[in-house]
Amino acid sequence: MKKKNIVIMLALVLTASTTYGGFLSNLFKKGGGGVSKTGLDESTVISGLKEALSVATDKTIASVSSLDGYFANKAIKILMPEKIQKVADTLGKFGFQKQVDDFVLSMNRAAEKAAPVAREYFVDAIKQMTFKDAMKILDGGDTAATDFFRKKTYNKLYDSFKPTISDSMNQVGVTNYYKDMMGKFTAIPFMKAESIDLDDYVTNKALDGLFYMVGEEEKNIRKNPAARVTDLLKEVFGKN
Question: Which Pfam families match (predicted)?
Answer without folding.
Answer: DUF4197 (PF13852)
